[in-house]
Amino acid sequence: MHLDAFNELSAAEAENLLRPCVDVDRWINELISARPFADRDELASYALSGIAPFNPQELDAALAQHPRIGERAEGESKEADLSRGEQATLKLDGDATARLKAANQDYEQRFDRVFLIRAAGRSTEEILAECERRLANDDATELAEVATQLREIAVLRLKDLITN
Known about the structure:
Mean pLDDT: 88
Helix content: 55-70%
Radius of gyration: 16 Å
CATH superfamily: Oxo-4-hydroxy-4-carboxy-5-ureidoimidazoline decarboxylase
Shape: globular
Number of domains: 1
Number of helices: 9
Low-confidence stretches: none
Order of helices and strands: HHHHHHHHH
CATH architecture: Orthogonal Bundle
Distance between the termini: 9 Å
CATH class: Mainly Alpha
Structural class: mainly alpha
Number of strands: 0
């Protein structure tokens, strides 16, 4: 969708467009309220850093929409389609799949949530190294990293939806 068309959407139409980016009402509503945007870079910048960080409840709600890294998202929703596209470049042979499964289990045991990382543009080895590094984080540091990753995913999705 062209940015000018996005700027002119009703709030309800804009909400429907934005929800697959990240299922956080406050983020969606603040982005809608900040319209119009002059260009896609301004929109992306505001979506990335112009809205206050996600709180723990927002993170929990948004993470419910994300599959484990290395697992194919199920269903026909826009969110599932986007997730499949983001993880499409991962090389998932038997060894990589087993290693990602073990990394996911270690992470979930440590932090009691799904390991979230922006997969787009990263190799399987990079993702595994990041999971290993993040396992050493304390809870507050990891919560901040999850919020950053979620925001990066949301902005990537937003950029796929909106053109100049």
